[in-house]
Amino acid sequence: DTEVTQTPKHLVMGMTNKKSLKCEQHMGHRAMYWYKQKAKKPPELMFVYSYEKLSINESVPSRFSPECPNSSLLNLHLHALQPEDSALYLCASSQPQGDYNSPLHFGNGTRLTVT
Amino acid sequence: QKEVEQNSGPLSVPEGAIASLNCTYSDRGSQSFFWYRQYSGKSPELIMFIYSNGDKEDGRFTAQLNKASQYVSLLIRDSQPSDSATYLCAGITDSWGKLQFGAGTQVVVTP
């Protein structure tokens, strides 16, 4: 069983909807990540939070808005998405990176379809 | 551009044989490498990580890292049909933990 839990597992939304993806980790990690994965492609980084502060925003469109309420929770707020945003959204967590890099552990993902 | 390269396959392996997966990287500053297994429609699952030159073994899996030659490999011994999946090689390229993934190698284990 994964210790990084994502909800919902599936989400279908229209282009005018507002929805949120949620992620919770029980691994005691202090870094959390959002990745986006299209079919037959590797995951691509969207956001990194380290110690609840946004450390990287990979020039992701503003229709995606991350939030990290505490060290174990991570949200991704979605607004006015486009059909090309349909993908598997992955949450991951790790210890903050130091001299030796900490492995990322992924949740089961949310399959998002924008209609 | 910091890149991780993998042969996309598919790599067909008879059941019980050894599957050998290779990965090269361009960033000499990369310190750590990870192998993830991803079944179709599922999320990546960490199976091995390696920081130091040499071999690291865990059950049927052996990861090898050669920093001088900038390659990472994964051996799967006694391959099983359940090993059929896409294997993603990834390196961390900065202090924030950004994973740079290869394209993934699809492995098909045939009974």
Spell out the key features of this protein:
heterodimer, A: about 120 residues, mainly beta, four-stranded antiparallel β-sheet, globular, B: about 110 residues, six-stranded mixed β-sheet, five-stranded antiparallel β-sheet, 11 strands, about 55% strand
Describe this structure in words.
The complex is a heterodimer of chains A (115) and B (111). In chain A, strand 5 (44-50) and strand 6 (53-57) form a beta hairpin. The mean pLDDT of chain A is 92. Chain A has 115 residues and is mainly beta. Chain A has strands at 4-7, 10-13, 18-25, 31-37, 44-50, 53-57, 64-70, 73-79, 87-94, 105-106, 110-114. In chain A, strands 2, 4, 5, 6, 9, 10 and 11 form a seven-stranded mixed sheet that branches. A four-stranded antiparallel sheet of chain A has the order 1-3-8-7, with no helix packed on it. Chain B is mainly β. Chain B is 0% helix and 54% strand. Chain B has strands at 4-6, 11-14, 19-25, 33-38, 45-50, 54-58, 61-66, 71-76, 85-92, 99-101, 105-110. In chain B, strands 2, 4, 5, 9, 10 and 11 form a six-stranded mixed sheet that branches. The termini of chain B are far apart. Chain A binds chain B through residues 2, 31, 33, 41-43, 45, 48, 50, 55-56, 88, 90, 94, 96-97, 99-109, 111, and chain B through 31-32, 34, 36, 41-46, 49, 51, 88, 90, 92, 94-99, 101-104.
- What's the oligomerization state? heterodimer
Q: Work out the radius of gyration of chain A.
A: 13 Å
The helix-strand sequence of chain A is EEEEEEEEEEE
Number of strands of chain A: 11
Structural class of chain A: mainly beta
Shape type of chain B: globular
> Are there runs of chain A of 5+ residues with pLDDT below 50, and where?
none
Helix content of chain B: under 10%
